[in-house]
């Protein structure tokens, strides 16, 4: 990959300055898609400083901006408020990223996928038409962790981490639809979604269920499930002995998604 990574601060965001890491591919053209991407971390700290998915998608020619969404705390609604403020800031100014013709999307993996889904919900509710799409990679959406596939979380060392993460994130005392999008009863009118998971992903069932509900609500959904054995769970810190080989598939799916929503 030929991706430039730089750290910077977005000043004058409504909630204050926000530190971000920017991934920009060498193939970036005029009017590249801009993706605000929320890294995983079970509603705590990311599994690693670098974000493999951000680097991967930037290699398609996108500009991927990874904000520190826990800058004001990691209990709901603080991460969502930071995430939405960054989206609103980018929607109005772009701040030198892309141009007015660039698609603007939000995305994330695991807990970051939860934040991305919530930002998409809030953008719909605030009539923020600037959001062109959402990219959800194994989003952590169900606080009850009751799906059949979630029983495999113990095998990759995530069961306790997710349980504790949910308890911490919801410790403010409420389970708002923005906090747990899987319980949201109104999904119509959301931005088109690219939804990714893998056959050996403990979050597979809740990911597929959310994609189905989005589609049933009339949302344009592009869904892809990678085969087992690609090392996908390592994306959000899951333990695996497999080498990561999901990148080419993720790049292909993202490029197709950008192309299709760009012509609609």
What this model shows, in words?
- Helix content is 30%, strand content 20%.
- Strands 1-2-4-3-5-6-7-8 form an 8-stranded mixed sheet, with helices on both faces.
- The radius of gyration is 17 Å and the shape is globular.
- Strand 1 and strand 2 (18-25) form a beta hairpin.
- The chain has helices at 52-58, 78-93, 111-125, 159-169, 204-216, 247-263, and strands spanning 3-10, 18-25, 34-38, 63-67, 104-110, 133-139, 193-198, 221-226.
- The longest helix is centred in the last third of the chain and has 17 residues, at 247-263.
- It has 264 residues and is α/β, with parallel strands linked by helices.
- It has 6 helices and 8 strands.
Task: Give keywords.
8 strands, eight-stranded mixed β-sheet, alpha/beta, 6 helices, 30% helix, globular, 264 residues
Brief synopsis:
By secondary structure, the chain is of the alpha/beta class. The chain is built from six helices and eight strands, in the order E-E-E-H-E-H-E-H-E-H-E-H-E-H.
Topology:
Elements: E1 3-10, E2 18-25, E3 34-38, H1 52-58, E4 63-67, H2 78-93, E5 104-110, H3 111-125, E6 133-139, H4 159-169, E7 193-198, H5 204-216, E8 221-226, H6 247-263
Parallel strand pairs: 3-4, 3-5, 5-6, 6-7, 7-8
Antiparallel strand pairs: 1-2, 2-4
Helix pairs in contact: 2-3
């Amino acid at each position: 990959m030929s991706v430039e990574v730089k750290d910077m601060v977005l000043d004058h965001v409504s909630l204050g300055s926000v530190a971000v890491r920017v991934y920009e591919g060498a193939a970036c053209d005029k009017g590249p898609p801009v993706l605000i991407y929320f890294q995983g971390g079970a509603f705590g700290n990311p599994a690693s400083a670098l974000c493999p998915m951000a680097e991967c998608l930037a290699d398609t020619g996108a500009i991927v901006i990874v904000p520190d969404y826990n800058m004001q705390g990691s209990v709901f609604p603080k991460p969502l408020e930071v995430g939405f403020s960054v989206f609103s800031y980018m929607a109005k100014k772009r701040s030198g990223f892309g141009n007015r013709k660039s698609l603007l999307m939000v995305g994330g993996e695991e807990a970051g996928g939860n934040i991305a889904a919530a930002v998409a919900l809030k953008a719909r509710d605030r009539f923020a038409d600037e959001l062109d799409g959402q990219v959800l990679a194994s989003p952590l959406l169900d606080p009850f962790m009751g799906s059949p596939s979630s029983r495999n979380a113990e095998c990759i060392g995530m069961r306790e981490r997710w349980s504790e993460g949910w308890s911490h994130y919801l410790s403010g005392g409420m389970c708002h639809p923005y906090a747990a999008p899987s319980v949201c009863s109104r999904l119509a009118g959301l931005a088109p979604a690219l939804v990714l998971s893998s056959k050996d992903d403990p979050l597979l069932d809740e990911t597929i269920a959310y994609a189905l509900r989005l589609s049933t609500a009339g949302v344009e959904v592009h869904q892809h499930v990678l085969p087992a054995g690609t090392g996908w769970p390592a994306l959000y810190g899951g333990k695996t002995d497999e080498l990561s080989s999901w990148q080419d598939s993720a790049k292909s799916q993202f490029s197709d998604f950008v192309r299709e929503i760009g012509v609609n």
